[in-house]
Design a protein that fits this description.
222 residues, alpha/beta, Ribonuclease HI, Chain A, Nucleotidyltransferase, domain 5, three-stranded antiparallel β-sheet, Ribonuclease H, EC 3.1.26.4, RNase_H1_N_sf
């Protein structure tokens, strides 16, 4: 289930809200209220802070009750230029980091000859599978990824369109990593309080940096 963030730029209490009900209370009946919904926290914050109408006091989204999930995938391949491909001896790996109030869980594994995209999807599958094993699927969960390859199909409805077209893209080409996407489709409905957020990779997000470190250590050991 994909949730939205509701940014209130002009209302009773400007800030970011996690539900439309909360947002509605801030803008209904307020003169010239200005608000907008976003799929990511980062997008909501950026809109709030645009030049000329900066919010001086915002209500931050509180993740204190959420289980935080970070996933990442990587491949040290030679296919970084047009026309090149991943080679059979190229190292690849995935990793996840699950943080609850009381405990942290990590997982990682590697293989040869896999693409970066395959590892990105696999990381999310492994994390969701672990959450099911732990019995956490009904709890509020925020999955934070740096991969638009994984996030866009989930958050922009591409998965639904692909299935409707028989797993073909809008251009009529077969969807890559179809079997893994089918696993995602089977897993997501089991998480009623799961929402996704994007973070910039290799930057300041500690959880994202941790999974990057984990998968690189795994590749080092292959």
């Amino acid at each position: 289930m994909v949730k939205k963030y509701y940014a209130v730029k002009k209302g009773r209490h400007p800030g970011i809200y996690k539900t439309w009900t909360e947002c509605q209370k801030e803008v209904n009946g307020y003169p010239n209220a200005k608000f907008k919904s976003f799929l990511t926290l980062e997008g909501a914050n950026e809109w709030l802070q645009t030049t000329g109408n900066t919010v001086t006091s915002t209500k931050a989204v509180n993740y204190s009750d959420d289980i935080l999930v970070y996933t990442d995938g990587g491949s040290r391949n030679h296919g970084n230029k047009l026309g090149q491909h991943v080679k059979a001896d190229d190292k690849a790996a995935w990793a996840y980091f699950i943080q609850t109030k009381d405990q942290a869980y990590t997982g990682t594994a590697g293989e040869f000859g896999a693409t970066n995209n395959k590892m990105e999807i696999t990381a999310l599958i492994k994390a969701l599978t672990k959450l099911l094993e732990l019995g956490f699927q009904a709890q509020p969960i925020t999955a934070i990824l740096d991969s638009h390859y994984v996030l866009d199909p989930i958050m922009k409805g591409w998965l639904t369109n692909w299935q409707r077209r028989g797993w073909l893209t809008a251009g009529g080409k077969p969807v890559a990593n179809k079997e893994l996407w089918e696993e995602i489709v089977a897993l997501l409905p089991q998480f009623p309080n799961l929402h996704f957020d994007w973070t910039k990779g290799h930057a300041t997000n500690a959880g994202n940096n941790k999974v990057d470190e984990l998968l690189n250590k795994t590749m080092d050991q292959l």
